[in-house]
Amino acid sequence: MSGFDHVWLNAHLATMDGPAEAPLGIVEDGAIATQGGSIAWVGKRADLPAHEAPVTDCAGAWVLPGLVDCHTHLVFGGNRAGEFEQRLEGATYEEIARAGGGIFSSVRATRAASEGALLEAALPRLQGLMAEGVTTVEIKSGYGLDLESEMKMLRVARRLGAALPVEVATSLLAAHAVPPGYEGGAGAYTDFVVREVIPAAAATGLADAVDAFCERIAFSPAQTERVFAAARAAGLPVKLHADQLSDLGGAALAARFGALSADHLEYASAEGLRAMAAAGSVAVLLPGATYFIRESKHPDVAAMRAAGLRMALSTDMNPGSSPARSLLLMLSLGCTLFRLTVAEALLGVTRHAAAALGMADRGVLRPGLRADLALFRIGRPAELCYWIGGNPCVGRVVSGRAG
Fold it and tell me: Which of this chain's residues are annotated to bind Zn(2+) (predicted)?
């Protein structure tokens, strides 16, 4: 008699653990058994070992690994709906920035907000993702741009993970932008990030990774290398906002440092993408930003496929360029805008999204891995990419517990 804690049966499974020709790893009329927060058994219901564990009848639902949103900025003060309205009426980004808008309006609002206010604003954003089957989410700092505010954002992210049945991974993105009027400009601010912010985030345990924005309007490759070297010295892995607006060699730079991921990649070269694949980095695609800013340049998905590069999908939830609060919508946009296949899109919010966070213990339904599940009332997995709007999620399991 098997000593399972709980059994889920009468379900169809998309394990994300299949061979290259059938990567979704479909098991119809399947079952999953858990023990101690991990998957103990998965397979056909007819093959389920004898047990005396409590049973949940999934009533024919499809079960996937818990979804992973691997790139968000969901802790921030205020919003920029007013700027959105101004742009629709003809104002340019430059005009809005000169009037005090843009990212620095988010910085001002975030600095001014209390920790409690930031937590209160972020809770419904995270709960919306959870309602769609998300069990793991990454949250970046980057709207503080001073030591106190960056740490405040990371503390809020940690509090979100403690308050809700979801795992939160944090990334320090102090190298997001240079604060306006910062004496010495980008070079001096990079010094500050390297000498003060990264060591503080590492010493307090508030950051799981370090991110940076390598772009002409942000930080040069040389400055980004300094940030990454400091992260490495602090024992933290790195991620990179890379090649979003131009090809500065961000993909190759990320590869040189063994980055968990490089994200955006609209202008990344084929050589950079091949370097990422060789380094084991994941390409995180962010179609919400492409849609919202009406970007005509798309990531070179064909080159990514040719390189054997793993691709993830994420919301990039942020107040400026991707106010996207639905990971399921990103599945649709990833397929329609970037021409991902259904399998690529679903792997992109499960197995490959987990890899983009360095989490090898989830994203796949396999014995020994974490028992994070998402249940959907659909007829086939493709419906998660097909429908525009709506939410067919009917349940989540986090570390073996329904929640």
Answer: 71, 73, 241, 316
DSSP 8-state code for residue 47: G
Q: pLDDT tens, position by position, for the chain (403 residues)?
A: 678 999 999 999 999 999 999 999 999 999 999 999 999 999 999 999 999 999 999 999 999 999 999 999 999 999 999 999 998 999 887 688 777 788 999 999 999 999 999 999 999 999 999 999 999 999 999 999 999 999 999 999 999 999 999 999 999 999 999 998 899 999 999 999 999 999 999 999 999 999 999 999 999 999 999 999 999 999 999 999 999 999 999 999 999 999 999 999 999 999 999 999 999 999 999 999 999 999 999 999 999 999 999 999 999 999 999 999 999 999 999 999 999 999 999 999 999 999 999 999 999 999 999 999 999 999 999 999 999 999 999 999 999 999 8
Q: How many CB atoms lie within 10 A of CB 15?
A: 23
User: What is the C-alpha end-to-end distance of the chain, expressed in Å?
Assistant: 28
Annotated binding site for Zn(2+): 71, 73, 241, 316
Residue 288 near residue 315 (C-beta atoms within 8 A): yes
Is the Cβ–Cβ distance between 217 and 146 less than 8 Å?
Answer: no
d(Cα 31, Cα 45) in Å, to the nearest integer?
Answer: 5
**At what angle are helices 115-131 and 147-163 packed, to 10 degrees?**
40
Alpha carbon distance 210, 389 (integer Å): 33
CA distances from 306 to 49, 62, 271, 354 (A): 42, 31, 11, 22
Match domain 6-65+364-402 to its CATH number in 2.30.40.10, 2.160.20.10, 3.40.50.1220, 2.40.50.140: 2.30.40.10
Binding residues for N-formimidoyl-L-glutamate: 143, 318, 320
Contacts of 289 (CB under 8 A, 6+ apart): 244, 264, 295, 316, 321, 322
Residues annotated in the binding site for 4-imidazolone-5-propanoate, as ranges? 80, 143, 176, 244, 321
Task: Answer yes or no: same fold for 6-65+364-402 and 67-357.
Answer: no
- For the chain, the structural domain boundaries read 6-65+364-402, 67-357
Which fold does the domain 67-357 belong to in CATH? TIM Barrel (3.20.20)
Q: How far is Cα of residue 168 from the mean position of the Cα atoms in its chain?
A: 10
Residue type present at position 170: T
Distance of CA 141 to the CA centre of its chain: 13
For 127, which DSSP code? H
